[in-house]
Specification:
two-stranded antiparallel sheet, elongated, 8 helices
Length: 204
Amino acid sequence: FLLLSVINALEAWLHLDCLSLMYPAWAEALVWGVIMLVILRHIARLTKRRKDNSNILKIKTEASIHVKNHQPNQHQGNGVLVTDAARNIIGKAPDAPRPAWLPTTGCGQARLPPLRWSVSIGNWIKFFQACMDTDTWSYLAEVKGEENITMHDIVAHFVKPWTRGTGCSIAGLLDDAQAQIETMVSHSYDGSVKETFSSVQSLV
């Protein structure tokens, strides 16, 4: 019934009623058979394409889950994993002792408007100097080379452990009344922290 309906619709659309007068029944059947074959082939191709896309998506999803499940936990036991520029594990640095002068509470970053998420140059230098005075920094310098220590290392080995559970950023812990931002200093996370430190020091 569906096939006859499609044929009748195509006849009306293409104004091919004259086929039954000009050609014998077998010729008309042959023409419509060819048309239906073409239509069915297109439908089959669309179905196959959709199935292939679904399989590709499934493979990508499974691959993503596989990679995620095999990402090493950066903090394992005593020490934090050290990675190179390609994120390959090259060692494990000792935990950095938290400075006694660094508060454990603050107003919390969520309570401040973004224009007050600031840190003074003096506090910035104080924090990085504290990082450099640890055995953790010495180990990173030995394994990676001091010029190759990046902000990724600072975050993993110092910022996260020292702010964990406080609800504050390092800046918030250093200054409970952060002032409104006056200048934004941009830097590369993959760049040398030593170079950034020297550049900021030159502003004092």
